[in-house]
Amino acid sequence: MVPAMHRPAQINVDLGAIKENIKNEVKHLKDKQQLWAVVKANAYGHGAIPVANAALQAGATGFCVATLDEGLELREYGIPKPVLVLGIVPVQWTPLAAQKNISLTVGSLEWLKAADKILAETNQALKIHLGIDSGMGRIGFSEDDEFIAANKFLQDNPHFEVEGMFTHFSKADDADTSYFDYQVKRFKHMQDLLTIKPKYIHVANTATSIFNRKIDSDIVRFGIGIYGLNPSSTPNTDDLPSEVPLKPALSFTSALSFVKQIHKGYGVGYGATFVADKDQWIGTVPVGYADGWQRKMQGFKVKVGDEYCPIVGRVCMDQFMVLLPHKMSAGTPVELISADPTAPNNIKAVADQADTIHYEIACLLSDRLPRVYKD
Ligand SMILES: *Cc1c(COP(=O)(O)O)cnc(C)c1O
Fold first, then answer.
1. What is the best residue among 34, 64, 200 to mutate for testing ligand 1's pocket, by most ligand atoms within 8 Å of CB?
2. Are 345 and 338 in contact (CB under 8 A)?
3. Would residue 81 show up in a list of annotated catalytic residues for this protein?
């Protein structure tokens, strides 16, 4: 995908805000606790390499990604710190991970045995973190017998260095902590079964680190907080208050590409879902669902010049239309997403409109949009 450089539409990323968010979290860390920056999915749409470099400057001591390729990208750009892949990587790529000093997540004895055979051929040692499924129902060990056998298998095994053991909570952003407490109990139980000694035991994502501060975790896997967004993730519900100040880093700007007056009875967009009831001014914005600006945004108000104007008609693949309160000129700036959390078009408001969470909005912003950075 080529970024569209000759179109007025861009994602603006404030690296100063990113550094501030990380520094504020680092201030909250306990003694010896580390912050590993989660930069998976192109740093939640913000751009993996610029964000990783900013995170390093602000005090991150490691990185988490979702795929081996994302880890390789960090290595390619010379990021020297530990990198952990949070997903399961097919065993055939374990020598590559070992060679690049990238740590992988292990979730089963079967995987370990298969990886062991391959690593034996290349005579390499792989750093691993034991993933524990304590109730997320996604990946990781959940049965005692298998976990005990895996510990035995790893004892004095030259092909693996057990760097960590971790779990992930499914309800760390909930005022009701009963399921969270259940997961803590399950994880502690698995921890009691350990016969090997991982260097790091870690459980905290952003929500856990902010809303459940008391829980021990050698590493905070700080994701959404980097980007200045509150980890509460229920659409159309108020966020839980965060003790750590969070400053959104991303805005999305464009400009009107075309302006016209339409008359009574004239329709706008596919299906003519909007029909003028009088003479009205319509502006066109050169952004559409191919940029990650979903059809669900119909009806949402974006800022055109100084006015909030509703999107009328269906959002097309590459363009959408807004109803203007009066004549405006082509080239008038349009702000689709504001970095100001109090603005009506902040990213949570965008997510609420699309009945989703801001994580998804940020990740869906496509590579067609150039990312522009300021410090
Ligand atoms: C994505 C992810 C994180 C980061 O979560 P945030 O809510 O963005 O802080 C941490 N741990 C795991 C296992 C993840 O998959």
1. 64
2. yes
3. no
